[in-house]
Amino acid sequence: NGVLLVLLAVAILIIVHRNLLNLSDFLDRENPGQILPFEAELSPGVRQKTERKRDEIPVLITATEDRLGAVIVAMNSVSRNSKANVAFTIVTLNDTVDHLAWISKTTLKNVKYKIVIFQPELLNGKISKDPKMLEATKPLTFARFYLPMYIPEVEKAIYLDDDVVVQDIQELYEINLKPGHAAAFSDDCDSASAKGIVRAAGNQLQNNYMGFLDFKKEAIKKLGMKANTCSFNPGVIVANLTEWKNQNVTQQLEKWMERNSEDLYSNTLAESITTPPLLIVFYKRHSPINPMWHVRHLITGAGNRYSPQYVRTAKLLHWNGHYKPWGRTTSFSDVWDQWFIPDPTGKFHPVRKHAD
Ligand SMILES: *[C@@H]1O[C@H](CO)[C@@H](O)[C@H](O)[C@H]1NC(C)=O
Ligand SMILES: *[C@@H]1O[C@H](CO)[C@@H](O)[C@H](O)[C@H]1NC(C)=O
Ligand SMILES: *[C@@H]1O[C@H](CO)[C@@H](O)[C@H](O)[C@H]1NC(C)=O
Ligand SMILES: *[C@@H]1O[C@H](CO)[C@@H](O)[C@H](O)[C@H]1NC(C)=O
Fold this sequence. Notes:
By secondary structure, the chain is α/β, with parallel strands linked by helices. Helices cover 35% and strands 13% of the residues.
């Protein structure tokens, strides 16, 4: 059944891809001279396929309509901070494709990227049908479960949440995965992250499995996992897609996603719907990512723990949690602003305290 769904999804993707190609033909006729990324994929003259493929760093990122500025900042920091040959796969919903013309109207137009449409139908029957839950469940957060489907034919790839600023991504890409591991994540228990978590969650400590999974439930007990095992943050993933496929990671994740309706998971924050299946499937089966490569909990307020010096030396900043650098109150939004490129369509504006 799962296999059929995946096949169906792939078929839909191919159709969508063809539609996009036709769209790009159309656009090209409208604006002669503008080379669209979709086209570059096809024309051998435009793309020196064979030799460059090897060193290409594939990066998957999702683009959500109401926070497109985040994708722009992430892409801009990645491409300007690295000489690496990065190829972005931007997974988005159909309604957002037009708005993504933002990219092609800026200096980012020379960055290698392709846009892929996520079909929310992919998740039918796998996540709660309760409309209130669906609201909280942002379908694109599940795109990372399907990495090999979106980035086929490569062995190693990176997934990034959109709310990040990244230094030289080549270094992240070179993180070694242990044999047999399909992914690397940054653990929540190194001292820097752990302190942030205590503050972020108030009185609820959420840096171990107990914070995400209900260990009173039989299905969880049966797995024999230790409840006090350190959790990890799936906002940055370095993946070995060969292993991912060999171990059927996507199917395993789908299985645990479906069981969401059994209330196995500790809370209903959107992000926590995505995290528990990953915690289960990668329990004691993932490699570490250096904490400096995933500095998070950039929370605001008095007694903010990180010094500006520390933030400057961070390799990757992740504004996880509720406060976003394009929002009204957050820390270090000045760093984020340095990478922001205004939206030529005028639809997206960072909210600032002194905006008026
Ligand atoms: C795209 O265009 C090609 C050639 O112009 C055509 O054969 C094909 O049916 C079109 N695809 C879609 C999905 O419309
Ligand atoms: C995408 O949106 C367009 C226009 O709104 C619509 O015609 C098309 O059928 C949609 N495609 C998919 C795959 O949902
Ligand atoms: C990925 O996993 C495969 C299968 O275990 C292994 O042969 C390969 O060396 C790994 N590649 C990387 C880059 O870790
Ligand atoms: C993965 O799925 C395939 C096909 O369903 C199956 O043959 C294989 O044994 C599975 N591998 C693992 C490690 O579960």
